[in-house]
């Protein structure tokens, strides 16, 4: 099956949102998705992008059909003073019916090549431990589980907690 | 205690580097740490990280928070890479004040960071501020591909 990887463009935001929602549903967290197409457009394709995205697409069955977007990876760059620049892979998803064809591996290869070229020392990401296929995929590609091996835990403040904390800090 | 928080500028890199170096004894040493100031100055342009400094009485830098803008299903967010207050100034609300400053960044709906499970004072502090441990609660693990594994992955 012929597919290609390319940088996402503004016209892709509806497909990106569709795939974000599919990934969220797969992780049983679809109610957490707050993004809209407008957000994706402003935040990804404005003067200062908050994220970058590559997508995988196949040509339609007929030459007159639009290409179909079947996978994506959303990422941004971070910097750890101890180890240098990192590529932070936030979302990575291939539609169910297109898995097992090497598309995910190709996307990861593309990202690692990009990471090397932009002088990143690593690719970081977060994965649910009960997502066995994903964990196996990443380990097969040489990823280390820092939570298991070094004891790193991910913490998050949501908006309400941030507002409460800021209110307390002003007292 | 009279402290203030402001966005760091290039001239502050020397003090930020000093505070990063203060943490070295707790972590493996990297060769380039001796050049930390130059690294901060040179990489801030393309890495787009941001720093808030905490100043005591307008002069001495006694803490900092280094962060990025992140993105997820929740929309714009903040990824806090480093939060540090010099030991002699802890317990006075400075860490909370630095995080609050980050938390109010325009348009950001969440603040994410990692902490080592054996760092009980930090874990207790964050939980007391209303933070959620999403590793414990949802089983989220941090993973990284680096070094030889990254090079191998990047080969055609």
From TrEMBL, chain A:
GO terms, biological process: putrescine catabolic process; spermidine acetylation
GO cellular component: cytoplasm
Domain N-acetyltransferase: 3-160
Pfam families: Acetyltransf_1
Location, primary (coarse class): cytoplasm
Localisation per UniProt entry: Cytoplasm
Reaction(s) catalysed by this chain's protein: spermidine + acetyl-CoA = N(1)-acetylspermidine + CoA + H(+); an alkane-alpha,omega-diamine + acetyl-CoA = an N-acetylalkane-alpha,omega-diamine + CoA + H(+); spermine + acetyl-CoA = N(1)-acetylspermine + CoA + H(+)
Enzyme Commission no: 2.3.1.57
InterPro entries: Acyl_CoA_acyltransferase, Diverse_Substrate_AcTransf, GNAT_dom
Record's keyword terms, sorted: Acyltransferase, Cytoplasm, Transferase
Pathway connected to this protein: Amine and polyamine degradation; putrescine degradation; N-acetylputrescine from putrescine: step 1/1
GO MF entries: diamine N-acetyltransferase activity; spermidine binding
Record text on subunit structure and interactions: Homodimer.
Recorded family membership: Belongs to the acetyltransferase family.
Record protein name field: Diamine acetyltransferase 1
Automatic annotation (TrEMBL), chain B:
Molecular function via GO: N-acetyltransferase activity
Residue ranges constituting the N-acetyltransferase domain according to the UniProt record: 3-156
Coiled-coil annotated residue ranges, if any: none
Source domain of life: Eukaryota
Keyword vocabulary terms for this entry: Acyltransferase, Transferase
Pfam family for this entry, one: Acetyltransf_1
SUPFAM superfamilies the UniProt entry points to: Acyl-CoA N-acyltransferases (Nat)
InterPro entries: Acyl_CoA_acyltransferase, Diverse_Substrate_AcTransf, GNAT_dom
Family: Belongs to the acetyltransferase family.
Name this protein carries in UniProt: N-acetyltransferase domain-containing protein
Source organism phylogeny: Eukaryota, Metazoa, Chordata, Craniata, Vertebrata
